[in-house]
């Protein structure tokens, strides 16, 4: 039990069979020891009984004279793999190196327990492996077309006295490193390289054995990734004493350099611009050095984006390898020469703008009469811009009605003139815009009043929506070429610049309408000078002297300026002495007459004299007030309060300004 817990030194189970001239690596490790983690190792060799010192990790004088030269040249060395493990490396092993190798570890344990060395037998055999190209030829060069098939052969044989197995790997080098294509392992299993698994499953990559120990690599559907140098890498394996497989040597031979001529598909023109209703002419060219019999299959695609995949694109037209073309009315596909295919699109429209690309596949005949697709390629997209046929026309805006005052009507007519190329496939709509008058250093903002879409549906802007719905603003089409904007009652906030935009719409083949042109009119300014309203009222007493019981009579004459067709409403007020307790505020509203000449008693409360006051309109600007049977209590200052009204929108009256006349005094004491 104590021995089981002690130090254990391990080397591989022998014998180790190695081939003369190869590099031999013998590992040695130690475990279950005391002391420092990094352990030292000594290696010795024996052909019969006595051991000769080879090399040590800790004693530079350990090496015997027999091995000093080989150790000094690095042909024999120790390579530490961890603190508790090293490898003895012997380059170019020879038959004289056959024998027993002992690995020892100096003790660092508190007590001596376990084993401190281990031995392994190494057997050196002759090199019986031979690897060569087909029939012993050196590397050849192959020049192939994309989609071709090719085969490469190498021969590998061994005459080893031991029972060894061969592991054959075909490799390719297209850069700096060799990559595995396909292997037949020493256990008789096929193993494809990481990049060749799918092609191996599809049968496009094969490895077959043949007579005379040949190994044949078959490649179908060659592409550009198959170009490069090919070699046959053969390793020899033997089963060790522990039943594990050990590689004892490896050889390789370069077989061929393969060049693949890529098949390219390009459209002869780059970016194209064509006018509406002209023809679009594109040619798809296939570049290949294939000289045998082949047929091309060509498909033309269209997409709105250059990044669309084939599944997203629209197939326009195709020609199969039997030269059968799919049907189309406006599009044709023709075979210009052996490798060129022409697409012709007649009567192009704006919606034909986009990206065009062609896909070509090459087919070759097989022995059974069928056709086999060997390569398929898609061109880069070509941008095609179809320029619309713009109708030629001008736009003229004029005002048939211009306001001079607020609430006057405004009418603007937007007229299409000198129209050319405006046949049935062209339709006109209008947009109305307003721009407020601002000081020169302020930013001018434009507001949309209304616009029409292609089917003449009117879309209202925020500024005009409510007034249009109320009938205050009217948009109409007076004639085929005349659009009208009418403001029934123009307000001061409507003052500014107005302009119209006439849009031309073109009808596409799918009967949709697409805007092709906008023409903007010169602005028309709607403006009138606004001056302050003025109102003057003059009161005149018709009888200078009278006594109580007589009739009081006064007139009010009104004059105004800057008011359109004014009408006046009149209110008669009286300012009584402060001693009059009937009206503590001092002012009494007696009688009024509105702008429509309707009379109303206001604060006149004397029931005995209901008809004692009269207010009447003498002329448009003159009003007369009478008060019958005057009494002492009627004493005071009398005035005319006049309001000027102007016509507003919708038949309503709008208050313009107020005026107050001079006072007329009734004083019975003075007049007595």
TrEMBL record:
Principal place of residence: membrane
Cellular component GO terms, alphabetical: membrane
Keyword Membrane assigned: yes
Ig-like domain boundaries: 21-113, 146-254, 263-360, 391-520
Pfam annotation, one family: V-set
Keyword Cell inner membrane annotated: no
Keywords: Disulfide bond, Immunoglobulin domain, Membrane, Repeat, Signal, Transmembrane, Transmembrane helix
Topological relation to the membrane, as annotated: Single-pass membrane protein
Localisation: Membrane
UniProt-listed PANTHER family: PROSTAGLANDIN F2 RECEPTOR NEGATIVE REGULATOR, V-SET AND TRANSMEMBRANE DOMAIN-CONTAINING PROTEIN
Protein name per the record: FPRP regulator
Organism: Todus mexicanus
């Amino acid at each position: 039990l104590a021995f089981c817990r002690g130090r254990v030194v391990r080397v591989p189970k022998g014998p180790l069979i190695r081939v003369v001239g190869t590099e031999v690596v013998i590992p040695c490790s130690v475990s279950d020891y005391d002391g420092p983690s990094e352990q030292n190792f000594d290696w010795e060799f024996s052909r019969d009984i006595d051991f000769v010192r080879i090399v040590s990790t800790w004693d530079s004088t350990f090496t015997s004279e027999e091995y000093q030269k080989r150790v000094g040249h690095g042909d024999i060395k120790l390579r530490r793999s961890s603190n508790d493990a090293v490898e003895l490396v012997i380059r170019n092993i020879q038959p004289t190196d056959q024998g027993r190798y002992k690995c020892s570890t100096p003790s660092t344990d508190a007590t001596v327990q376990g084993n401190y060395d281990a031995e392994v037998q190494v057997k050196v055999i002759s090199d019986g492996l031979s690897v060569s190209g087909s029939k012993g030829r050196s590397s050849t060069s192959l020049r192939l077309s994309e989609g071709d098939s090719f085969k490469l052969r190498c021969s590998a044989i061994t005459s080893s006295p031991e029972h060894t197995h061969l592991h054959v790997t075909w490799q390719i080098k297209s850069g700096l490193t060799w990559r595995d294509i396909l292997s037949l392992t020493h256990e008789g299993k096929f193993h494809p390289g990481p990049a060749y698994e799918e092609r191996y499953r599809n049968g496009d990559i094969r490895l077959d054995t043949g007579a005379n120990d040949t190994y044949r690599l078959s490649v179908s559907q060659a592409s550009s990734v198959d170009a490069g140098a090919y070699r046959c890498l053969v390793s020899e394996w033997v089963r060790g004493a522990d039943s594990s497989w050990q590689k004892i040597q490896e050889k390789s031979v370069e077989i061929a350099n393969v060049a693949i001529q890529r098949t390219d598909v390009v459209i002869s023109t780059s970016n194209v611009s064509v006018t509406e209703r002209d023809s679009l002419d594109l040619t798809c060219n296939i570049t290949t050095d294939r000289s045998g019999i082949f047929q091309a299959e060509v498909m033309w695609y269209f997409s709105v984006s250059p990044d669309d995949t084939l599944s997203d694109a629209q197939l326009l037209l195709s020609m199969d390898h039997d030269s059968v073309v799919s049907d189309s009315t406006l599009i044709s596909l023709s075979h210009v020469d052996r490798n060129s295919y022409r697409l012709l699109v007649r009567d192009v429209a704006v919606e034909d703008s986009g990206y065009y690309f062609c896909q070509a596949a090459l087919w070759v005949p097989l022995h059974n009469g069928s056709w086999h697709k060997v390569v398929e390629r898609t061109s880069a997209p070509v941008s095609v811009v179809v320029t619309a046929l713009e109708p030629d026309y001008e736009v003229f805006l004029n005002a048939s009605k211009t306001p001079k005052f607020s609430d006057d009507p405004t009418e603007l007519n937007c007229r299409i003139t000198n129209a050319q190329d405006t046949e049935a496939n062209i339709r006109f709509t209008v947009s109305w815009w307003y721009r407020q008058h601002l000081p020169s250093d302020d930013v001018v903002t434009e507001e949309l009043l209304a616009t029409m879409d292609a089917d003449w549906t009117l879309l209202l802007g925020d500024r005009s929506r409510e007034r249009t719905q109320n009938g205050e603003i009217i948009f109409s089409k007076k004639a085929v070429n005349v659009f009208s904007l009418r403001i029934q009652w123009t307000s001061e906030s409507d003052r500014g610049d107005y302009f119209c935009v006439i849009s031309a719409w073109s009808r596409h083949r799918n009967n949709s309408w697409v805007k092709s042109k906008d023409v903007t009119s010169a602005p028309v300014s709607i403006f009138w000078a606004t001056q302050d309203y003025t109102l003057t009222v003059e009161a005149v007493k018709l009888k200078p002297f009278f006594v109580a019981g007589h009739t009081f009579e006064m007139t009010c004459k009104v004059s105004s300026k800057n008011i359109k067709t004014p009408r006046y409403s009149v209110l008669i007020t009286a300012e009584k002495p402060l001693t009059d307790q009937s009206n503590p505020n001092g002012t009494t509203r007696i009688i009024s007459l509105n702008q429509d000449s309707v009379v109303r008693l206001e604060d006149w409360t004397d029931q005995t004299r209901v008809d004692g006051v009269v207010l009447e309109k003498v002329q448009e600007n003159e009003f007369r007030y009478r008060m019958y049977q005057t009494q002492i209590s009627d004493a005071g200052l009398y005035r005319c309060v006049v309001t000027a009204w102007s016509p507003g929108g919708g038949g309503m009256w709008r208050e313009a300004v107020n005026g107050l006349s001079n006072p007329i005094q009734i004083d019975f004491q003075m007049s007595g």
